[in-house]
C-alpha cells in the first residue's frame, strides 16, 4: 500500500487531480477517524478533512520518503490541522485525556509496521508513566495538544519558568528512559 500511495503523492505533486481523488479514496477514512477522535464533532472533522487534502495538494512536492511513509506524513498533516482547529474552537474548554487520542492514531502500512508502531506506543506510554505527574502533564499538553509553553502555563495557572523547567526535566528523563529502546 505504501508504494502505491507514494506513486499517488508524486502524481499529486504534478497536479494530477485524478491522483488526488485516488489518494483521498484510499486514505480519507483514516484521516476522518483521527480528526473526529481529536475534535469530537463530525461536521468540524469533515471541514478539516478538506483542509488536510488541500494541504496535500499544495505540499505533495515536499513529501520525503526518507522522513516517513505516506500514511505517517498524511497523519502528521491531519494531526497538525486538528490541533490548529482545536486551538481555535476549544481554547478554554477541558481537554480529552491523552489516552483517548493516543490510542486512536492508526497508521497501517502492513502487519510488521503495525506491530512496530504498537510496540513503540507501549514503550513511550511506559516511559511517560514513569514521569512525575506534573512532568507528564506538560509533555502531554505540548505534544498531544500542541500547546506552547505560554499556553500550558496559562492553562495550568503556573509560572512560565516552572512549565519550562518541568518540560526540560521531563524531556531529559524521557531521553534517559528511551535511550535503551532501539525499535
Task: Describe the model.
This protein has 183 residues and is mainly alpha-helical. It folds into 2 domains: 92 residues, RNA polymerase sigma factor, region 2, helix turn helix motif (Rna Polymerase Sigma Factor, Chain: A); 74 residues, Winged helix-like DNA-binding domain superfamily/Winged helix DNA-binding domain (Arc Repressor Mutant, subunit A), CATH 1.10.10. It is built from 9 helices and no strands. Helix 2 crosses helix 4, helix 3 packs across helix 4 and helix 8 crosses helix 9. The longest helix is centred in the N-terminal third of the chain and has 23 residues. The chain is globular. The relative contact order is 0.10. The mean pLDDT is 82.
Question: Which labels suit this protein?
Answer:
183 residues, mainly alpha, Rna Polymerase Sigma Factor, Chain: A, Arc Repressor Mutant, subunit A, globular
Can you lay out the helices and strands and say which pair or pack?
Layout: H1 2-13, H2 17-39, H3 42-59, H4 70-90, H5 98-102, H6 111-129, H7 133-143, H8 149-156, H9 160-178
Please report the first level of CATH classification, the CATH class of the largest domain.
Answer: Mainly Alpha
Which range does the strand content fall in? under 5%
Query: How far is the N terminus from the C terminus?
Result: 22 Å
By CATH, the architecture of the largest domain is named Orthogonal Bundle
Mean pLDDT: 82
**H/E element order:** HHHHHHHHH
| The CATH superfamily title of the largest domain | RNA polymerase sigma factor, region 2, helix turn helix motif
Poorly predicted regions are: none
Report the radius of gyration as a whole number of Å: 18 Å
SSE class: mainly alpha
> Looking at the structure, what is the overall shape?
globular
**Main sheet characteristics:** none
Number of distinct beta strands: 0
Query: Approximately how much helix is present in the residues?
Result: over 70%
Instruction: From the 3D structure, determine the CATH topology of the largest domain.
Output: Rna Polymerase Sigma Factor, Chain: A
Count of spatially separate domains: 2
Count of helical regions: 9
Amino acid at each position: 500500500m505504501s508504494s502505491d500511495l507514494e506513486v499517488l503523492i508524486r502524481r499529486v505533486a504534478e497536479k494530477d487531480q485524478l491522483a488526488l481523488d485516488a489518494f483521498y479514496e484510499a486514505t480519507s477514512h483514516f484521516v476522518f477517524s483521527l480528526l473526529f477522535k481529536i475534535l469530537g464533532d463530525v461536521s468540524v472533522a469533515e471541514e478539516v478533512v478538506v483542509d488536510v487534502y488541500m494541504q496535500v495538494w499544495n505540499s505533495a512536492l515536499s513529501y520525503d520518503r526518507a522522513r516517513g511513509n505516506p500514511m505517517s506524513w498524511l497523519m502528521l498533516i491531519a494531526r497538525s490541522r486538528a490541533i490548529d482547529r482545536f486551538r481555535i474552537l476549544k481554547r478554554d474548554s477541558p481537554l480529552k485525556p491523552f489516552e483517548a487520542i493516543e490510542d486512536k492514531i492508526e497508521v497501517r502500512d502492513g502487519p510488521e509496521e503495525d506491530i512496530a508502531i504498537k510496540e513503540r506506543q507501549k514503550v513511550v506510554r511506559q516511559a511517560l508513566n514513569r514521569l512525575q505527574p506534573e512532568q507528564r502533564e506538560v509533555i502531554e499538553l505540548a505534544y498531544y495538544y500542541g500547546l506552547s509553553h505560554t499556553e500550558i502555563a496559562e492553562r495550568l495557572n503556573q509560572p512560565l519558568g516552572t512549565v519550562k523547567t518541568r518540560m526540560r526535566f521531563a524531556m531529559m528523563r524521557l531521553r534517559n528512559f528511551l535511550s535503551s529502546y532501539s525499535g
